[in-house]
Amino acid sequence: MAIRMPHIIKKSSKAGDVPKGHFAVYVGEKQKKRFVIPISFLSQPLFQDLLSQAEEEFGFDHPMGGVTIPCSEDVFVDLTSRLRKREGN
Cross-referenced InterPro entries, in alphabetical order (predicted)? Predict the structure, then answer.
């Protein structure tokens, strides 16, 4: 299932601004930033690795109320840029 992604990942601050076909994640080592990304990333092996790391570190109790990804913002942006290129967006 391919979902077209907006041309850039959206850094988001409001809880209610997640468009259909997307979900929010919190990224960062100390200060967490919220990003809205397409659900199509869930099927990508690189993203699945990040989710496995999140499960190991946080289990299913994410302190921010959403999925928290335990990596730096720079690493996350680099990874999602590569995923966007793979999807052709």
Answer: SAUR_fam (IPR003676)
pLDDT tens digits, one per residue of 57-86: 777 666 666 788 888 999 999 999 988 888
> Which residues 6+ apart lie within 8 Å of 72 measured at CB?
27, 28, 29
Q: Strand runs (DSSP E) across 5-78, as ranges? A: 10-11, 22-27, 33-38, 67-69
The b/e string for 45-80 (b: 16+ C-beta within 10 A; e otherwise) is eebeebeeebeeeeeeebeeeebbbbeebeebbebb
- Residues 6 or more apart from 66 whose CB is under 8 A from it? 23, 24, 25, 26, 34
